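Lab notebook, page 48
Experiment: co-folding of the full assembly
Goal: obtain a model of how the components sit together before planning crosslinking
Operator: M.T.
Materials (sequences as entered):
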Amino acid sequence: MRLDATAALALKALSRNKMRSLLTTLGVVIGVSSVIMMQAMGEGATALVSNEISSLGSNMLIVLPGGESKGPFGGGLRGAVPFTRGDVEAIGRECTAVRRAAAVSSTVIRAVVGERNRSTSLMGITPEFFDVRGWHSASGRDLDGEDLRQASKACVIGQTVATDLYGGQDPVGAELRLHDLSCKVVGLMAAKGVSTFGQDQDDFVLLPHTTFARRIAGDEHVGTIMVSAVSEARTDEAKAQIESLLRQRRRIRGGEEDDFNVRDMREIQRVLGTVTGVLTTLLASVAAISLVVGGIGIMNIMLVSVTERTREIGIRLAIGAQARDILQQFLVEAVVLAAAGGALGVLLGVLGALAVAEAFHLPFRVPIFASAIAFAVSVTIGVVFGVFPARKAARLKPIEALRFE
Amino acid sequence: MSDAGQTPTRAPLLSLRGVTKVFGAGEAAFAALKGIDLDIFPGEFVAILGASGSGKSTCMNILGCLDTPTSGRYQIEGVEVGSLSEDVLARLRNERFGFVFQGFNLLRRTSAQENVELPLIYAGVSRRDRDLRAREALASVGLAGRERALPNELSGGQQQRVAIARALVNRPAVLLADEPTGNLDSRTGREIMALITQLNRELGLTIVMVTHDRDIAAHAARHVVFLDGEISSDGQRPEAAA
Ligand SMILES: Nc1ncnc2c1ncn2[C@@H]1O[C@H](COP(=O)(O)OP(=O)(O)OP(=O)(O)O)[C@@H](O)[C@H]1O
Ligand SMILES: [Mg+2]
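Observation: model returned without errors.
Model output:
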């Protein structure tokens, strides 16, 4: 029998049991659509994160206390010796591949203006911060070396804090209270908006690090050092210089591991890549499992179908069907079932990915490659799980099949 | 062509020798055929008679390559059937034999036309020829205009005629018919018998037909009577045929 005749036959058989066919193929639909959705969303998120990171400046380095072995983001600050402003100055002074180094310490605090108050992130910084980040006040001025030396009660605030605490008014020159510290707003930072991770990047107050140390933290510790290398090409060199300088200053002996961590943006990107990779693998295995479950569903219903249609098989054999005609008939039916599920899954997956991309403002691209793969996999599933029932049908003896009740 | 049954000197088309068929095993074993010798010659019209349960259908199934004997030999044109592969047997069923079952065995929810086209599909006949030949076959059994009807929309007699059309559509050499007129009124029965007799006379179609009806059997030149799994009589009836 020719393939087109068999395919027509399969479609007819399946359309006789529309509801059953739909339910049978649901496993494949869900498997395929989740593969497509995850793939599309993963790609969108990765693209966005890379954009974000390159906007931070690809020549930026971040120095964190704590050893390499303590987690991908250099966590495990416990027990790690904090940095000092002396370390920061030494890096800026002695490392030739470093353009600027800034100290950053931070905490969360309640900022109060008259009746209004807002919980915000407070950062004590050295003036190099503005250059390292390439980010400056939009009105008023940045904090400068004089502020740092005198530990002046001056602050620069982000747009969100300004809007929330001063309404529409220009905050520059106004007062702001942080606990018992009353300081003057000298600058308003340019707006940055919301980050990839949904974080408001304009919700902060900047103080000179000296003021922060004396009036807020109560110690001179530096939490993070932000460094910009002379150029992107020299980030590796800058990293090596910082490492050897800090080992020396922190008296780490030859064989000992670093108790700090220098990360560049490419590395952070890599880490993020690994995280999304792990997530993707996880979701892919979930999808694979649901595809296998879907395949078993198809096998199950095909076995039922073979039993139900034993007499039909007997009649076909009696009037001249060969075993391979019967095999082909049931195999094509299983494949058509799986392929229809795959096609429906691709459609739903693409629509779902589009909806999610809309909702989270992620970039969207039609995942052509993933769709093709997912479709091919579902056809394969149809073949793999259709073979057993089809062989069972093809092995029947004509007279036994005809007698079957 | 010369009258059927008048030339038994030719080599047999179908030949059974000492064929037995045992169903079940051990205590429950039941011998439905107990050593059958039967030769069918080309162009013959043979009626098989016998009481219910005497083994007629069992014998027909073996002749039509639907079932295999427990022991004994079955040859088609001198070729041992036991030596043939499943695929060759399928081809024989498709091209050489037309089988009309005791129950009609039409495909459910499948139109008369499609039922009749089935053997042609497996024979690889093109869609256009299939359509044409199935229409012709249906018309020849008096069902022109009912092509689209489903089996459950047809009367028992009409279903039987669809089954006959299906058996004849691929122009087989042998028609094996298990009570083809059992469900027909006597007038339709006569029409079908006239058709079958005509095919036998004009095209030399070899016919083996099971029937309980002596009037129907009168169309056949040779009567083979089954009794408890054995052949109790086998004889030419030269006075037969209208
Ligand atoms: N598959 C089977 N399993 C067990 N016994 C069977 C089977 N097929 C037939 N028989 C038995 O074999 C005997 C012959 O059956 P068969 O169908 O050949 O009879 P028949 O002559 O065609 O009868 P009828 O005129 O009623 O159609 C019966 O006793 C029947 O019970
Ligand atoms: Mg019978």
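Interpretation: The interface with chain B takes residues 1-2, 5, 16, 311-312, 314-325, 397-399, 402 of chain A (CB under 8 Å).
Next step: discuss with group before ordering constructs.
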